[in-house]
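Protein modeling request. Please complete all fields; requests missing the sequence field cannot be processed.
Requester role: graduate student
Desired output: 3D structure, token encoding
Chains: 1
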Amino acid sequence: MADSKKTTRVVPPQRKPVKAKADAVKAVGTAGIGRPDLDAVRAQIDGIDHQIQTLIAERAQFARQVGKAKGKLAAAVDYYRPEREAQVLRRVVDRNDGPLSDSELVRLFREIMSACLAQQEPLKIGYLGPEGTFSQQAVHKQFGHSAGGLPLASIEEVFDEVAAGNADFGVVPVENSGQGTIQSTLDMFLTSPLKICGEVELRVHQYLLSRTGVIGDIERVYSHGLSLAQCKAWLRENLPAAEKHAVVSNAEAVRRAKKSDDAAAIAGETAAHVYGMKVIAGPIEDRSDNTTRFLVIGRGAFPPSGNDRTSLMVFIRDQPGALYRILEPLARRDISMNRIESRPAHGALWQYAFFIEVNGHVDESPLKDALGEIDAFAGEVRVLGSYPVAVP
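Delivered output (392 residues):
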């Protein structure tokens, strides 16, 4: 018997075409004839600001209706859909004709979506703290500033707090463009039940910070080991005699450097503002493309977004041609493999698991078909997550 309930679709009110652009052209006058009327231009900007605010408020109202349509859910995490956000942001990039860059528009729309989602309840995101780390910047880039941050002392604690439900999601670094893989993150997936729900690419700029702001005072430099490595050539040229001390995070390095005039820290510029330090120099990273990739971890899986990546952990039986049999079904279906790396398998001496990243979503062909074939050869195939490719 057919369902007798009627579905009501909310349709946004029809709007008259916005004339702001044409009016602004009139306000500035004919090209080459005099200067624009400054008061008229400002009046147009004020009018546009009013329209933007009205539209944002309208969007927030519709976001509330989405919440009502989903019914009574358990928590904020039940309202969050990374695949939907990725689709929205890709359309923002596709529509952009300037003058603002894609990254600026993506950032603005991310904050709008973050604020709208927080009407239900702010998400709580665990990250490697304390405040002022690049991990916190990655949280803001992925979830916006309306999400709540939960700074934690280690990557392991981020996994534990998400698994226990004390954080809705976690953000953990997994690789750097110059220094390679963060092994401690990969090793957590050997035993953790959590899923990868997203990825964040963060352009990393390193700065030398101190209390005095005078490079001649510096005898010791604190930073995370990866940051010290990213600035190795600069340190060798500018502070060859200074002691280098690796600590658990860049924010912790700033806290230590703040205790003495002869100490400095390498960290992001944000940390200088958070801890009241002076910038001696920066950016000081050795590579101009210095980028760190972060993974978003959560307790569940999400549907396809249309442009996805899948992470696998494959445990291979010890037999000739085993790795070939795992990779051949991917190659035969023209599935691009972005990454492969081996890690020692826990509980078995000299046995290895392969961390593999490929294009596609586990619920869609051709990847779905390839995994069915791979499973027959592998000792175990664990899908760590299918998630949207990072939006530029």
